[in-house]
Amino acid sequence: MDAIAPTGKVTTFLAKLNDALEAQDADAAAALFATECYWRDLVALTWNIKTMEGRDAIAEMLRATLGSARPRHLTLDGDATEAGGVSEGWFTFETETGRGRGHLRLNGEGCWTLLTTLQELKGFEEPKGPARPRGVEHGVQPGRKSYAERMEEERRELGYSRQPEVVIIGGGQGGIALGARLRRLGVPTIILEKNERAGDSWRKRYKSLCLHDPVWYDHLPYLPFPDHWPVFAPKDKLGDWLESYTKIMELNYWTRSTAQSARWDEAAGEWVIEVEREGRPVTLRPKQLVLATGMSGVPNMPKIPGMESFKGDIHHSSRHPGPDGFKGKKVVVIGSNNSSHDICAALWEAGVDVTMLQRSSTHIVKSDTLMELALGALYSEEAVANGIDVNTADLIFASIPYKVLPAIQKPQCDETKKRDADFYRRLENAGFMLDFGADETGLFLKYLRRGSGYYIDVGASDLVANGSIKLRTGEIDRITENAVVMKDGTELPADVIVCATGYGSMNGWAAQLISQEVADRVGKCWGLGSDTPKDPGPWEGELRNMWKPTQVDNLWFHGGNLHQSRHYSQFLALQLKARAEGLATPVYGLAQVHHTG
Amino acid sequence: MDAIAPTGKVTTFLAKLNDALEAQDADAAAALFATECYWRDLVALTWNIKTMEGRDAIAEMLRATLGSARPRHLTLDGDATEAGGVSEGWFTFETETGRGRGHLRLNGEGCWTLLTTLQELKGFEEPKGPARPRGVEHGVQPGRKSYAERMEEERRELGYSRQPEVVIIGGGQGGIALGARLRRLGVPTIILEKNERAGDSWRKRYKSLCLHDPVWYDHLPYLPFPDHWPVFAPKDKLGDWLESYTKIMELNYWTRSTAQSARWDEAAGEWVIEVEREGRPVTLRPKQLVLATGMSGVPNMPKIPGMESFKGDIHHSSRHPGPDGFKGKKVVVIGSNNSSHDICAALWEAGVDVTMLQRSSTHIVKSDTLMELALGALYSEEAVANGIDVNTADLIFASIPYKVLPAIQKPQCDETKKRDADFYRRLENAGFMLDFGADETGLFLKYLRRGSGYYIDVGASDLVANGSIKLRTGEIDRITENAVVMKDGTELPADVIVCATGYGSMNGWAAQLISQEVADRVGKCWGLGSDTPKDPGPWEGELRNMWKPTQVDNLWFHGGNLHQSRHYSQFLALQLKARAEGLATPVYGLAQVHHTG
């Protein structure tokens, strides 16, 4: 209630921390933290995305980084607040190379969580607001080139007579968001997209698809959706938005372009990427290579005995064309996660006889419940009305250490179970195998740990519950000419089999493009090391290999949902810009590789 | 300094005004105003754009409108402020049909200026923010159409099997801004654009062109430029933005489409417009027709003796292709306003021998000075930092009655003269005929009164001053095979003559499209009736025929710079929406026609 007490508390703490940091006293700084404590750094001190857990880890990080990073001028920004014995506040700070924004939480013992994020590089600030360009310079200059001529020249030269600094493979939301940030930072970049138009990766999916995340969570950098944008954008509308966005942001976006191979040229210190652009070969030689082909890797096609004998159409969900061609046929969809539910519902809507084949338990959460309980405080109309803009929301989100998340998510998950008890009961009565995550913490942790194993219900669950979508559970024994046969002997007649069986790790792309050796050196992408299904330990504290340096120099992985593409592209772009400008970027705590994929 | 005193004052005033209005007591309401007083109404009470000047005019308007409009719930919004003896504040209010926003200024005597603006129609609010659509509805519906299918259906049907409510002729910024607002209001609209792509009306202009107004003044509705947008956008960048904007806003934007003729079908109560769309005839039958072909009308080609004998290339500035084809030629540009300066400078930059032929005096103001003195308080990075968003700036701008403008502009103009005295001296020394408007009030009033007679200097004036662009002043006697001959006998050899001789009134488009009779009934467009050159009296108090009902039912004129296209499209869109929904829209004080063009 009283804004002065927490503000005084946080101000005093920041002054002490600032003193310790300026005195290069790692132990004194670490001693200001509580017994249970976390310092999450996004590229500000560590040139890495890293969470230090506990005083010792914090002291070790500071010993390694204080000398070069020299963080200073920690200054409270706005008033601090207090709730449940925890004071929290925002602060700004500087390092040797940049300016940052931070957030901290204090409990009775000291600092509980600290977030430090790099916001801009000194001398390489984005030209925005008061620093925006003038546009065409007034005054007259004989023979000067117009904007259109300069743009045309850049399009003609970049990748041919002049090499880009960065090549991004994959022109979905990840590549586009990163490309926009690099454009604002003045880093010459080419984005390679295999489709004909930006946005096609959405347009080409099944026709009823809409975003499962709400609009407030989905903005791209710099150009928020207008305020009439629907809560759940249909795929084609999002595709069109992405296409306009690439134009407005003036990205060098090469459509109908695929990277055939890439290798690191050690002598030249650059990648050599063989590209086919609209049917013609082009060799690109960037310093940095970013794989932004989605948070998922190569489609997983299951190996099922007898598959090759199947006479009908069998395809992976990523190649599913939508329901229109399947009227009058019997379709079996293997899998029970998001894609399977969406595909089954669209088939049912089109009047197709469809069976969902569930092999293992799935977490289901109703979209409305998720929006309200999990996202509402940060990403909603109410949050906007409370002055929480998307950048602030992203930083609050980022301020919660992954280690702490299960304890925060568990009560939300419990509340979800209670609120939708009847819904879950109906699903179980229909034979659906439900779970709520290994530790009953729900969707978001499943997403972070394995990126799969759930469905955000936007309607299909009712069809499963009432039998409109037929449900079969259990293990598959084999596939015959015209059926899927279960271990219990049941035979499911099928004209079409859709394998909604997920994707491998993103480093599979590196194997395809570069080499298995490089993919293995990078190791598994995504996941936290939570020691839960499909996310083996040891604990990593951050998503593996995402948006940060990997064991392979100059190779980066970028992906995730729209929120992550927006937020983490900022930090990946700053890392790339620093390297392009030749700044020292000593990486602290480069993650070890424990799993190859 | 003290925020409480003015807030109390304004609150008390609003309560009294509210009481008088609710009591339907026009005289009591008018008596609350100062001797010199203005009530400017944008569609809230009058269904017109109208300024009432003086207590009598206010009382008369209220007598006519109170019964139907029933304004009420006038409520101060935020704190009032005080400066120089004038208290001012914002307020909200309601009418029978809508909700509004207003602004008022009180002096010692009573209310000096009052602005009332209609912001939304009850029951027909824009679906934005908390009222935004859900997007694709969750749940399942057999046979439902996807977003892409629904969009495709609309594109296929509108104008063919289903008629639009509104047709807008002209797809520049005016038509686009209005189209976006009508789309949000759910009014089926088709925009006709003669060019191949949205934005071509900018792209096709001479290559060095950039906006002369700064970015903060230029936003379109709903989707502001991102904050790296240049201060003065180059024409092609603006063209590309407009093109993306039409797509993002999902406008029914017909390119390569021209209206051949239009007539009002009295029996059917609709326009019959013969259109050629991509070479094929289409007949459109909308209820409302908007001419948005620019604030200027048909190009003025001067009639000069001997013109027909000229052997070279003679063309109007609107058809000038830019300098590239004119190397090695002698070019004479007739006229000395914006277009002439821009064209001359681009020709000089390209190394062409160019002469500007000035026939009458011109107002020149340096862009930087204009930005700082005239726009800085409302449209600048500082204004943004002070929390003045573009909507607020537009309303403050709108709150100043045209009658009061000269007294406000005069000191700015005087300051301009002082600040740039050396610049003006150099121009006069070169023989340039300068003016600062009939009453020395500068650019903005010239713009409002006649839309011409000035140049916003972005560099060409230096070329005139130093003789790089040759300057000749005086009257033309005749044109020969290869020269322009002045009244004083001087001969200006010419291979090319560009007539930068301006445009007629917008109702000229109605003459071309509909009939001279209709054009004459509409009368002259633009101008205030200031009794200054090219703006004959009597005093009108508002721009003639712009964005408001004309003497010809269901025919509307929309145009102006980006600022006006943005701001006034709001009120035109609300007028059109109200008619589309069949609401009563009794127009008060429809302007009389005093001049036919």
From TrEMBL, chains A, B:
Keywords: Oxidoreductase. Residues 125-137 have a biased composition (Basic and acidic residues). It comes from the Bacteria. InterPro entries: Auxin_biosynth/cation_transpt, FAD/NAD-bd_sf, NTF2-like_dom_sf. Residues 125-146 are annotated as: Disordered. GO terms for molecular function: flavin adenine dinucleotide binding; monooxygenase activity. PANTHER family: FLAVIN-BINDING MONOOXYGENASE-LIKE PROTEIN (AFU_ORTHOLOGUE AFUA_4G09220). This is Putative flavoprotein involved in K+ transport. It comes from Rubrimonas cliftonensis.
